[in-house]
Amino acid sequence: MTETIQPAYDGYRFGRFEVRIRNGVLLRDEKRIKIEELPFQLLLVLLESPGEVVSKETLRSRLWSDRIFGELDNGLHVAAAKLREALGEKAGATARHIETIRGRGYRFNGSVEPIFSPAFGMGTDTAFGDAAVASGQAVPDDAGRDDPPNHLEQAAKTESFLHRRSIRIAAFALSVLIVSAAGLVWFYPHRHRPLADSSDPVVLGGFINNSGDDSYNGMGHAFRVKLEESPYLNLIPEQSFLGTVPEPASAPLKQLLKGCASLGGKVLITGAIMARSTGYEVTTAARSCTDGSLLTTEKAKAESRETVLAALDQATNRMRRSLGESGASLQRFNMPLAQATTSSLAALRAFTLGEEKRDSGQEFEAIPDYKLAVDLDPQFAMAYARLGAIYSNAAEQTQSADYFKKAFDLREHTTDRERLYIAAHYYLISGQIQRAIEAYELWRSLYPRDASPYQNLALEYLDLGEPEKAADVARTAVQLDGASSMSQAALARMYLETGEQGQLQTLCSHVQGGKGDSAMLHESCFLLAFLRNDEAAMQEQILWSRGNAAESELLDDVAWVAMYQGKLNAGRKLFAHARQTALAQGFSELAATIDVDEALLEVDCGYRREARMLALDALRLAPQSLSIQAGAALALGRSGDTALAESEAAKAAAQAPLDTILNDAQLPSIRAAVQLAKHNPQAAIQALERARPYDACSALNLAPAYYRGLAYQDAGHPDKAAAEFRSVIGYLGLMPDSPYIPLAAIQLARVLHRMGDAPNAAKAERQAKQAWQHADPDFLPLRKGTS
């Protein structure tokens, strides 16, 4: 982003027009003309170089960021058209001042006079003369002389007097100029010195509704949106401040300042709205966190309810400028609140109630509030996005995708930060992984102090099985917002998958077990306890989930551990409990996902009939779900129902042609399963090559590499089969509860036994049987052994 160079003058004059930069005003014959902000900024850039062509590239760097959503040409065309309209011109040959240079840019035609505004008003010559008299300077007085006047002498005296007077006037004028200049030297930097620089920590201390009207209770969220929109402000994360001051809007100023100082904040910003005899007044104030002194106050009036959000726009924009944000940044990152949030105060209030519940860990309880917000304003993009995120966290991917699609379609009605949030999540839920990563990268480049893109990047790299890429961004997320449960969850999972068990143990020991904790954090702590064979710690995490909205997810993890251990009957009961819990919570797609999980494990342990029944039940619960169609198709293919498997796979493929994991990993795995059932291992091997880059992807649970090993085994390539099974075992750190690890170990033992490598075959068998030491006696893989 390019900084606008501040001019040394305060405006321009051309023809009948005058531009006042500081006030953002365009005058014609001393009467104000209505003009929007972007056309006004375009005019300023053109006036800096009258008669010269200003290129599109220059205008882009001055008016927009280098990375902008939308088409540059169209944006310039609209801005130029509105500028001409304000100047009373038409495009083309008749345009007097604003000329379009086709394919190159724009040019201002006409003479331009800069306007300078000195700090002090300077008087006329008369004023200087009066000053001289007042100062007691001698004035010749010839009255009472007896001699007749000598005209030559009098002329000489007069000339001498005028010369001395001129010198005195010049000297006085020079002294005034020196004083004025000194005043400017002192006044300008002191008047315009920013209250904070971009590195100073700033705390948002809440927004008070003193209007007597509850419909303005949602203004606090709008206040935060406007300030979070700024890439300049170094805002301390909201969750960190809520940890010290749980209810900022009702807290006394002393408590706000204390909380701000405890977090190392430099500036505390608060806001308020109050009713006036006519309309309302919105106020924002900045105070020093160290001594509580008032640094500045910015106010804006609203004539009616309809202009309250516009008044908040004005007050926050002035505050951002007072805090040091440049005009270019304010121009670039300045979406009006009525567009960025909603023009409906009722919808804003409902959304705010949802945000408060979400921030306190009551994510699922916030769903009715967000739904009410979109009912009140069907154009409320961020309300749709919040619903999409909640349903995604509940594994309700179909509903999540629907809500994110609505948000994505409305993303132009949001701030840049919110637009990036929506775009990245939409790409992710629609399976466009690379585009999601690019959106997160752009997000963190524009807002480098925002923890959210780092959190999401870390989790995406972990889902792809690339913990080394996740390490740095996960640590940065915690540095930026250590109080966030998402930051902690990303860090915990990174520790688990990189084998940093000591670090993870330290993190887990500090987990408070509160309602606002991330289920992912507790899952990582549960898996660490499982790796360490710490039954008490495992139970502690299970107890946390009871009665929690995340209970079914953690129960699913416990069921996977039981299947890893060969405890088939316990695993089935746990899967059934998890499924019933999800249904009781109203999450049918999550229940279907649990069905698919169990079906895949049942079939690969040899229980084909049970697997087929579970797959059919999953399709009954969520027949339109992309993930369920793909998962059920894989289980059906492995169970021998190849026709239905191919049918469901075709439905999934038709739904998501851009989904990376589906097209490059899941569908190849389904084709391989069908070919294995048809005793065509070579075709299975060919199908699975496409999935190789995603062998460690969490969505596949190590199945592709395992199936590739089976295919090589059936095709008579024991050495290649052994390599595939070893690769599965090598992912123990990434997925320590995956039943495919002991299954791969027993398959490796069989392959090595047939190859005549008895010592290594025995070692692999011991590894499998160690995992199954408490298995059910009739557990099929254990009964088959290496035979």
From TrEMBL:
GO terms for biological process: phosphorelay signal transduction system; regulation of DNA-templated transcription. The chain crosses the membrane at residues 169-188. Keywords: DNA-binding, Membrane, TPR repeat, Transmembrane, Transmembrane helix. This is DNA-binding winged helix-turn-helix (WHTH) protein/tetratricopeptide (TPR) repeat protein. Pfam families: TPR_8 (PF13181), Trans_reg_C (PF00486). Coiled coil: none annotated. It comes from Silvibacterium bohemicum. TPR repeats lie at residues 381-414. CDD domains: trans_reg_C. InterPro entries: OmpR/PhoB-type_DNA-bd, Sig_transdc_resp-reg_C-effctor, TPR-like_helical_dom_sf, TPR_rpt, WH-like_DNA-bd_sf. Residues 9-110 bind DNA. It comes from the Bacteria. Residues 9-110 form the OmpR/PhoB-type domain. GO terms for molecular function: DNA binding.
